[in-house]
Amino acid sequence: MPRTGNKNPFPTVDIIIEIGAPGERPGIVLIRRKNPPFGWALPGGFVEYGESLEEAAVREAHEETSLAVELLGQLHTYSDPGRDPRWHTISTVFIARAEGAPRAADDAREVRIVDPRRVGRRLVFDHGRILADYNAFKEGRPPWTKTSPRTKALSRTAS
Amino acid sequence: MPRTGNKNPFPTVDIIIEIGAPGERPGIVLIRRKNPPFGWALPGGFVEYGESLEEAAVREAHEETSLAVELLGQLHTYSDPGRDPRWHTISTVFIARAEGAPRAADDAREVRIVDPRRVGRRLVFDHGRILADYNAFKEGRPPWTKTSPRTKALSRTAS
Q1: Catalytic residue among B48, B70, B99, B110
Q2: Which pTM value belongs to this model?
């Protein structure tokens, strides 16, 4: 049986939106948050009951950046209980692309297109780590084989 | 703000446990469910608040099959609202390996090691599709680039 209320982590999505001229290495879209924790982050938000992750990703990207994104795929799903200081979220991260100019809306105060290789440490939540995984993925190392030290320790403990 | 109660989908994990002699193509572990919907399925279950997906995967694999698994990575995260007839779950699927003989316990009535290429259509939930994705992955086609027809339609609608 599933638990109700705060006994379940909250599913969320974050979206790495690639944008740029054909042939160029793409920039990605960051938003400056209107709510705490303040700072720069990937666009994203909570998944509604009855909504797929893919629907949530397209909806949240549009709400915060005004862009109509095309999803390219899932990068990874992040679930460390400390990744959000407020509550336990589990975020599935999508890579997407869009054309046109983003415009901040909803929970985003400002929006910017940046070089993903130059922003990692200044982001809120675990979005710096997510961008590091994305940059590694773009260089041919998919995160699917990544097991955190914590996971490895846990596997050994269980045996 | 996250919604409480049944306004959020429930995060779950399912685990594809590879087992077999070195050098052989591995079999995978299926369980026969003690609770409805009855039938054969991948081991798995709900993620607890404060528990990572990786911890949940190791715990659920052990509870249902008595195996101490080593996680190899995430395959994909499945979120179609109709994938479970009872409620909306979002399942992150792991590939893992284990040694020894599985023994049914907890929610599993029976356990079996099967050839993953020969079981797809007889499984409950969307586990047949998951195994099809797993088989494709083992042949070099990772599901990360997969976008469902529904997603494609949605991307077009949003533009």
Answers
A1: B110
A2: 0.89
